[in-house]
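A reminder from the course coordinator: this example appears on the midterm review sheet, so study it carefully.

Given structure:
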């Protein structure tokens, strides 16, 4: 032991690098490689966030009951799914797990305001955090999140990622998944949600422990309207592109429409991993 301590004092830089290497190896060994692959056909039963919430309640000696009901993505109305995507990750179907533009925008805004005012996590990143990690923001956790995000993108289809996401994220104290949320707040199955109700559910995803989707608070109404505006902008852009394509000669090159969305910041809170 004395020889080891002498070596460490004599080689401080090497010791630090060796320590970091060992730390990285240990963290990589804890990544759920097999579990991620199994998600192709197996629905997760309990997530890391569920376990964290139960532990927090136990530490406060408070009762805690989890309500979750799985529903297939194909049974959820398209307008509800679209509301969630435009609210949380407008480029979900085109990125590989990370939205680098949002990351840059988030960093710049957080530096300007000297606080975590805006999150830049994609739906896949949020899912990685919910399934396997915690709400901690330490660098090691963020590094593991990045690795798990890449594995999820490589192992699962976009539809499967979205299906697991809407069935596992938190929508209130003990309420996990869109079916349980729909029943709790609107008294109906997620398969019967209206556009208004879907936008309200999407609006509170970043802060489900502080805001209820069925409440007419300033926060909920403002964010709901932003979601609806983004959806309308996407529809208008899609219709415009369709008209343009139908009027062009067959041999004329057509460029896809850009993601026309409201750029208003609606990322307040991080309960679900933003």
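Designed residues:
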């Amino acid at each position: 032991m004395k020889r080891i301590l002498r070596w460490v004092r004599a080689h401080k830089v090497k010791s630090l690098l060796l320590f970091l290497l060992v730390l990285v190896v240990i963290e990589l060994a804890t990544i759920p490689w097999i579990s991620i692959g199994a998600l192709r056909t197996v629905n997760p039963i309990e997530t890391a966030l569920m376990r964290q919430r139960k532990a927090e309640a136990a530490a406060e000696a408070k009762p805690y009951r989890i309500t979750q009901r799985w529903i297939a993505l194909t049974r959820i109305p398209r307008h509800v799914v679209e509301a969630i995507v435009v609210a949380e990750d407008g480029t979900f179907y085109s990125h590989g797990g990370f939205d680098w533009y949002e990351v840059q925008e988030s960093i710049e805004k957080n530096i300007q305001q000297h606080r975590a005012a805006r999150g830049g996590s994609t739906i896949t990143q949020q899912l990685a955090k919910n399934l396997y990690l915690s709400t901690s923001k330490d660098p090691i956790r963020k590094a593991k999140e990045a690795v798990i995000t890449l594995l999820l993108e490589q192992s699962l289809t976009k539809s499967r990622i979205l299906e697991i996401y809407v069935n596992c994220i938190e929508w209130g104290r003990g309420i996990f998944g869109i079916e349980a949320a729909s029943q709790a707040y609107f008294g109906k199955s997620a398969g019967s949600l209206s556009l208004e109700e879907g936008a309200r559910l999407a609006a509170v995803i970043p802060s489900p422990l502080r805001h209820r989707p069925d409440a007419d608070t300033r926060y909920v109404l403002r964010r709901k309207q932003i979601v609806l505006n983004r959806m309308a902008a996407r529809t208008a852009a899609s219709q415009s592109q369709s008209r343009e394509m139908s009027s062009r000669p067959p041999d004329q090159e057509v460029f896809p429409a850009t993601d026309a969305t409201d750029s208003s910041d609606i990322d307040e809170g991080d309960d679900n991993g933003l």
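The chain has one domain: 34-243. The domain at 34-243 is CATH 1.10.3810.10 (Penicillin binding protein transpeptidase fold).
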